[in-house]
From TrEMBL:
Keywords in alphabetical order: Membrane, Transmembrane, Transmembrane helix
Lineage: Bacteria, Pseudomonadati, Pseudomonadota, Alphaproteobacteria, Sphingomonadales
Key word DNA repair present: no
Domain of life: Bacteria
Name this protein carries in UniProt: Diguanylate cyclase (GGDEF)-like protein
Record domain EAL: where: 1-250
Keyword Isomerase: no
Length: 250
């Protein structure tokens, strides 16, 4: 496939793939506590591509590993430049089939000189559904190395919830579909309240994604949500623009 060939080439180049960073805010208004790394591809002919257009191709063609290593290296640079921030990196469920994932990620952090304690790995619920020994040992090895684990898009998978007691994670990120329906549908408010309580009862940090309005922000703050991320605060920006953005959000 054409896009696969282009992606293979882009990974070896400096200028096409770039990592943008979206700030994550302290829920009670204490400013920026972290950023999430989000990949962008400036395709020579197709223009700027969002991950939705190429992450699946990367997963199917074995390129997701090299792509993630590149994102993590960049993220480690940001972590070193901003010692007070946590830096989140998305890991594809496909990558958990590899027995060498933990060792690879640990090696990159060591090479760059970043601290794993500053890096958060975002994984989706589907990863934990395969209650399998590889996933279990990978997640334990990563946590032992100091990485924090966040459950991304929480509530959209087949949430059996039993996995929450089988796998130790640090954070849940409530999917933006629930946040977007706050104020429109009573069930969304009930679900958000329940997830915040569930998370806190299990000693987890609870983040809301896709916060776009002041009303959503106020609701989430009142509900006790610990962290928030969304266009209300900022979209993802290039690392070079972070200094100015963080200054503005202080
Ligand atoms: O960045 P957007 O704004 O379009 O992201 C869309 C989706 O792509 C999200 O689900 C996000 O988790 C995923 N995504 C963004 N960057 C990466 C990445 O570096 N690796 C993986 N596996 N997914 C990513
Ligand atoms: O699945 P993942 O959480 O990693 O997705 C991050 C995606 O969400 C990125 O595509 C990012 O651009 C997008 N995003 C971030 N904030 C908002 C928001 O406030 N509203 C919407 N609609 N999308 C957002
Ligand atoms: Mn994410
Ligand atoms: Na998400």
């Amino acid at each position: 496939r054409e896009i696969e060939e282009d992606l293979r080439a882009a990974i070896t180049r400096e200028d096409e793939l770039c990592v943008h960073y979206q700030p994550q805010m302290d829920g009670s208004g204490g400013g920026v506590i972290g950023v999430e790394a989000l990949l962008r591809w400036r395709h020579p002919r197709r223009g700027s591509l969002a991950p939705a257009a190429f992450v699946k191709v990367a997963e199917e063609s074995g390129l997701i590993g090299p792509l993630t290593r590149r994102v993590l290296r960049d993220a480690c640079g940001v972590a070193i430049a901003w010692p007070g921030l946590s830096v989140a990196v998305n890991i594809s469920p496909v990558q958990f089939r590899s027995r060498t994932l933990a060792a690879e990620l640990i090696a990159i952090v060591r090479e760059t000189g970043a601290r794993a304690q500053q890096i958060e790995l975002e994984v989706t619920e589907s990863v934990l559904l395969d209650n399998d020994e590889v996933v279990h040992s990978t997640l334990s090895a990563l946590r032992r190395a100091g990485f924090r684990i966040a459950l991304d898009d929480f509530g959209t998978g087949y949430s059996s919830l039993s996995y929450l007691s089988k796998f130790k994670v640090d954070k849940i990120k409530i999917d933006r579909s629930f946040i977007q329906r706050l104020g429109e549908a009573d069930d969304a408010a009930a679900i958000v309240h329940a997830v915040v309580r569930l998370g806190h009862a299990m000693g987890l940090v609870v983040t809301a994604e896709g916060v776009e309005t002041g009303l959503q922000h106020a609701f989430l703050k009142h509900a006790g949500c610990n962290e928030m991320q969304g266009f209300l605060f900022s979209e993802a920006v290039p690392a070079a623009a972070l200094r100015r953005l963080l200054g503005r959000l202080e």
